[in-house]
Amino acid sequence: MAAGFPGVRLGLATVRWLQTQSSSPLAVIGGRFPVMTGILSGCASRKQIRHVHVTGGRSSPATGTVPGRLPFATVSQQDLEFFNKLLHSRTITDPDLLESSNRDWLNSVKGSSEVLLRPESTEEVSQILRYCNERRLAVNPQGGNTGLVGGSVPVFDEIILSTALMNRVLSFDRVSGILTCQAGCVLEKLSDYLEERDFIMPLDLGAKGSCHIGGNVATNAGGLRLLRYGSLHGTVLGLEVVLADGQVLNCLAGLRKDNTGYDLKQLFIGSEGTLGVITAVSILCPHKPNAVNVAFLGCSSFQQLLETFQCCRGMLGEILSAFEFLDSSCMKLLETHLKLVNPITESPFYILIETAGSNATHDEEKLHSFLETVMSSSLVDDGTVATEQAKIKALWAMRERITEALTHDGYTYKYDISLPVEKIYQLVTDMREHLGDRAKNVVGYGHVGDGNLHLNITSPAKDPALLAAIEPYVYEWTARFQGSISAEHGLGLKKKNYIHFSKPPEAVALMGNIKSMLDPRGILNPYKTLPDCLR
Ligand SMILES: O=C(O)CC[C@@H](O)C(=O)O
Ligand SMILES: [Zn+2]
C-alpha cells in the first residue's frame, strides 16, 4: 500500500491522490457485468428479450445468413436414456432450465436445444462425445456463456455440453506457479484461490465472475492483463482435450519448455470448441504483485493519448500492467445508464493505467515521475491515482463496465478489431462520419497496449439498414490496414463469414482440413468459427 503521495500540483492541473481523500467522488464500486446474473437466471427484462434473434432456421443480417440445419440426428428417447444412465439428474430437459443456456448473455442469439448435459469428469465427457459422434448428434460445448460473438449457444437443437460442474482445482505448484484445474473453474474463483497463495491468474476479464477458464482458453480471451503477461498461447502450458470421437488427448504436462514434436495444444486455444472439448488446463501464474497502482487520466486528443502511451512504456517499463482507454461517449454511457461518477474533469479521452510491481516505493516514484512528465508537457489534462483496493476497483469499473452500460443503450453492434495502434481511433471517427445520425451512439474503447479497439454502435432497436451501413464497411476498413476483424472475442456465429478479411484463402482452407481431420462428422460446435462455404 502506498505511504500516500501528497496532492501534488503538476503543471496546470492537480493529480488527486485518491488514497488521501476522505470523501472520494467515486460512489461507484461496481460488480462486473452484474446484468449477467439476471440474464443467466432467466430474469432478462422484456426490453432485452425484444432483441433476441432466434437463430436456427432463419436468416439474420445480425448473424450473417444462417443456412439450414445440417443433417445431424435428433435426440431420441433412447439417447435420453443413455444420457440419464450416464449422468442421472445431470441430464436436463426442462425447457425453463434450458432457457438461459440457449440464449447468449447479450440476448442477441438464441438456440432451441432440448438437452443440457452437465458432466463432472473427463471420462463422462469422453463417453458423451463417443456416443454423440456415433449417433451424429451435434454438440455445443458451453462454459460460462459470456461470449460476445454467439459462439457459446446452440444455433439449432445441438446438445449443450456444459463444463459448469467440472470446477475443481487439480493441483497448484507454489515453486513453478503452475495451476492445473478443470475447465469449468470460474475465472474469479481461480483468482481468489491463487491470491490466497500469493499468486494471480495471468488473465483478467470484465466477465470474470461468470466465465470459465475452459471457455477463456477455447476463445483465447485476451483481457486486461495481456499487455503484461501475454496471451494464452504463451501462458497455457498444457491442455486436456476430449476429441470428437471421445478420445482423451492428455497434453497437460506442466512444463515451461517442451519441444517434442508439434505443439498440439495451440490448435485448441482459440478454436471455440470446434476441434475438441477442453476439459482441463495447466496455466502459468505470476506472483501476486506487492504494489498495485491505478491512474485514471484525461487527454484532449487521441494523439496525446498515444504520446502518453509511448512515454508510459518508456518511463514505467516493467511495472506497467495495463494501458486501457475509453472515449467521452463511453463516459456518458457510464454516467447515464450506470450512474457512475467521472472521477476527473470531463475530457475527450480517458486512460486507465495500472502498475504492478514488487516494490511500492520504487513503483510510486516511477509513476510519480511519469505523471509529472505527462502533465507538465500537457499530454494529460487531469488525473487521479488509487493505491487502495476499493478505489482501484472503482477506477477499473470505469473501464470494465462499459460493456454493461452499452446493453442499456439499445441494440449494440460490436466490433473487436486489432490494428496498428496509431490507427485504432481513426476507425471510430470514420465510422461516426460514415453513419451520421443513423446510429444512436458510436463509441470506442479498448486495450491500447495491445492495439485492440472495441468499436460499439448502438441503435434504439435492431436495425438491418444500420447493419448494412456498418458491414462490410468496418471489415474493409480493417483489412485496408492489415488489421484483424477479431482480436480477442473469436468469430463464433456472428463473424465467421468475414474470416477472409483477415486470413488468406489458403489458411481458411487449411483450417477446414484440420476441422475435417479432428471432427470428420462435424458434430462439435457446428455453424461456428469456419465460414459457411466450408460446411
Ligand atoms: O463489449 C465489448 O465490446 C468488449 C468486451 C471486453 O473485451 C472488454 O475489453 O471490455
Ligand atoms: Zn476486450
From TrEMBL:
Cofactor(s) needed by this chain: FAD
Its EC number(s): 1.1.99.39
Keyword Oxidoreductase attributed: yes
Places the protein is found: Mitochondrion
GO molecular function: (R)-2-hydroxyglutarate dehydrogenase activity; FAD binding; metal ion binding
Reactions accelerated catalytically: (R)-malate + A = oxaloacetate + AH2
GO terms classed as biological process: malate metabolic process
PROSITE patterns in UniProt: FAD_PCMH (PS51387)
Primary localisation category: mitochondrion
Domain FAD-binding PCMH-type: 109-288
Cross-referenced InterPro entries: FAD-bd_oxidored_4_C, FAD-bd_PCMH, FAD-bd_PCMH-like_sf, FAD-bd_PCMH_sub1, FAD-bd_PCMH_sub2, FAD-linked_Oxase-like_C, FAD-oxidored/transferase_4, Oxid_FAD_bind_N
Domain of life (superkingdom): Eukaryota
Listed Pfam families: FAD-oxidase_C, FAD_binding_4
Keywords associated with the record: FAD, Flavoprotein, Metal-binding, Mitochondrion, Oxidoreductase, Transit peptide, Zinc
GO cellular component: mitochondrion
Top EC group: oxidoreductase
Similarity annotation: Belongs to the FAD-binding oxidoreductase/transferase type 4 family.
Protein purpose: Catalyzes the oxidation of D-2-hydroxyglutarate (D-2-HG) to alpha-ketoglutarate. Also catalyzes the oxidation of other D-2-hydroxyacids, such as D-malate (D-MAL) and D-lactate (D-LAC). Exhibits high activities towards D-2-HG and D-MAL but a very weak activity towards D-LAC.
Protein name (record): D-2-hydroxyglutarate dehydrogenase, mitochondrial
